[in-house]
Amino acid sequence: MSKIEKFYEGIASFFTNEELWTNIGIGTVKIITIILLCSIFSKILKVAVHNIFKVRQKAPIRISERREATLLRLLDNVITYVLYFIALIMVLDTFGVEVKAILAGAGIVGLAVGFGAQSLVKDVITGFFIIFEDQFSVGDYVRIGNFEGYVEAIGLRVTKIKSWTGEVHILPNGSINQVTNFSLNNSVAVVDVSIAYEEDIEKAEQVIRELLSELPEKYEDMVAPPELLGIQNFANSEIVMRVTCETRPMRHWFVARALRKEIKLRLDEHGIEIPFPRLVLYNRQDEGESMPKNAKENA
Fold first, then answer.
1. Which residues form the Mechanosensitive ion channel MscS domain (predicted)?
2. Cβ of 212: how many Cβ atoms within 10 Å?
3. pLDDT at 294
4. b or e along 267-279 (b: 16 or more beta carbons within 10 Å of the residue's beta carbon)?
5. Which band of pLDDT confidence, cut at 50, 70 and 90, is reported for residue 111?
6. Residue 84 and residue 11 share a domain
7. pLDDT at res. 70
8. Which helix (H) or strand (E) holds 294?
9. Where are the beta strands (DSSP E) in 119-276?
10. DSSP code for 210
11. Would you say residue 288 lies in a domain?
């Protein structure tokens, strides 16, 4: 029998081997079943976790909503990673791979990598304490180093911060040394109002105070009625008065803009002028002519 005939005979025996195709079919069915079961269990566990947190929301003692959102995302990630790792092990076992040997080898390799990947270990440990100590949570507005924005996600290794212009900054947790969290407490809106020197200051203060007492009913972001502190500064062409207002976290910018608009409209209604920059010019020649003769000579 020639080599070509042996080759074609081998190919024919391969495609006509019932046992081989049976094993391939069974293996394919097992892999599809494993993936489907993994996906189903993942959804069931995630729904269960979310329902548990919904029940905790009705309890008299519960953790903050910020921390709940952070823990939910973290648990979702953990469930996904664990289940798909188990699915990968089961798929390898379906192919006849010695899983025990792989796990034992992976343990030794992991130990060796652990010594070399100290920065990764540092990221994971720091991420754990960020979540455990509730330093900041998803949705908080924070400043970390040179980056400032809303926290998009917190993982065990990295933290994602989205700035107000849309950029997403991904920071390793090990690099987070100092955090400024703007969302833990109420904010304060500060507005400076300029009044012309020619205006009646007491009347202006009375008009502004009457307006400030009406605003909390209009703007729900105001925690307390705005307060007129008084005269803040004497500027070149105006008297500056300061208004402050306690607001909900991170709503002070919106409230400050609203205060400026409301105060401007109310002052216009009462004919109280908010001055614009002025420039006074003196004619030196005319001034010199009005000077005494001796003063001109001395000049």
1. 120-183
2. 20
3. 44
4. beeeebeebeeee
5. low
6. yes
7. 67
8. helix 293-298
9. 141-144, 147-154, 158-162, 168-172, 179-181, 187-195, 227-234, 239-247
10. H
11. no
Residue 111 tokens, joined: 């130990």
Of the listed ranges 92-96, 161-165, 231-235, the least confidently predicted one is: 92-96
Has residue 293 got a pLDDT over 50? no
Angstrom CA distances, 163 to 14, 112, 126, 207, 272, stand at 60, 38, 22, 39, 40
Using a pLDDT cut of 70, give the percent of the chain over it: 74
Q: What residues make up the domain containing 112?
A: 3-116
CB neighbourhood size of 75 (10 A): 16
Give the contacts of 272 (CB within 8 A, at least 6 positions apart). 195, 199, 203, 204, 207
Instruction: Read off the pTM.
Output: 0.52
Residue 294 lies in a domain: no
| Length of the chain in terms of residues written | 299
Q: Are residues 172 and 234 in the same domain?
A: no
| Nearest alpha carbon to residue 192 among 245, 266, 247, 236 | 245
Q: Name all contacts of 122-129 with Cβ < 8 Å and 24+ positions apart.
A: 122/173, 122/174, 123/156, 123/157, 123/158, 123/172, 123/173, 123/174, 124/156, 124/157, 124/173, 126/173, 126/174, 126/176, 127/154, 127/155, 127/156, 127/157, 127/158, 127/159, 127/173, 128/156
Same-domain status, 166 and 191: no
User: Where do runs of H (alpha helix) occur along 17-138?
Assistant: 18-57, 65-94, 99-116, 118-132
Tens-digit pLDDT profile for residues 21-32: 677 777 788 888
pLDDT of residue 162: 92
- Of residues 34 and 9, more confidence is placed in 34
For residue 230, the SS3 value is: strand
